[in-house]
Design goal:
By secondary structure, the chain is of the alpha+beta class. The model has no long low-confidence stretch (mean pLDDT about 95). A hairpin with a 5-residue loop joins strand 4 and strand 5. It has a five-stranded mixed sheet with strand order 3-2-1-4-5. Helix 1 packs across helix 7 and helix 3 runs antiparallel to helix 4. It is globular and about 45 Å long. The protein binds glutathione.
Length: about 210
């Protein structure tokens, strides 16, 4: 099984889960600038969407869309609780936060901020909006250590990426409960190892 990711892109979330659960998955870096794998294979021959993440099974079948890929990865390590059962409060909260990060934080805010050619006023609007979304997340983190409660879930892996990008981009100075949450993520060896690995690969595969 292969996981196609691009350093410091949203596929970081799946990378964290793969490391957290020690899943036997081959990591395949992709350059999104060149749209090529490390072996020079055109990325659109692997996924017509040409976007990371892509999970490829041994029979050639692929799964795309970060929120779905993360659920599939969590299902491969059921004992870790990265996605509690959907019938539970924690499971519903995990999916709710997952969707919030994908739609409100990633595509609504981070995408326009980090995409070349976006008009300055749209970028400014997205930055303002990001501050509001992060304030909402921080309110939750004043009640619970992780987004969906007391345990780290796939929603934290995805939001952890969003926060990492926010900090790297100097978009916000984290304080209080958000800073404590960031420190909590950094204390997870898999999170830090994924970050260091992707930082080292970034110049080669961005
Ligand atoms: N809807 C997709 C979007 C994923 C996405 O935006 N991936 C970005 C990296 S964070 C990407 O591959 N960008 C390259 C492109 O869109 O051409 C998902 O949720 O997985």
């Amino acid at each position: 099984m292969d996981y196609f990711f691009s350093p410091l892109a949203c596929s970081f979330a799946g990378h964290v889960i793969i490391r957290e659960a020690s899943l036997p998955i081959e990591m395949q870096p992709v350059s999104l600038l060149r749209k090529q794998t490390k072996d020079g294979v055109p990325f659109d021959t692997i996924s017509a969407k040409s976007q990371v993440p892509v999970l490829r099974f041994d029979d050639g079948r692929i799964v795309t869309e970060n929120s779905v890929v993360l659920q599939v990865l969590a299902d491969m390590a059921p004992d870790h609780g990265y996605l509690p059962p959907r019938s539970t409060t924690a499971g519903q909260a995990t999916l709710e936060w997952l969707n919030f990060v994908a739609s409100e934080v990633h595509k609504h805010c981070l995408y326009p901020i980090f995409t070349k050619g976006v008009p300055a006023e749209v970028r400014a609007w997205a930055k303002d909006n990001l501050v509001k979304k992060l304030a909402y997340v921080t309110r939750q983190l004043s009640h619970t250590p992780y987004l969906a409660g007391n345990a780290f879930t796939i929603a934290d892996a995805y939001f952890g990426w969003a926060l990492m990008l926010t900090l790297r981009g100097g978009l916000l100075e984290p304080q209080g409960d958000l800073l404590a949450y960031w420190d909590r993520l950094l204390a997870r060896p898999a999170f830090t190892a994924a970050m260091e690995t992707e930082e080292a690969l970034f110049s080669q595969f961005a």
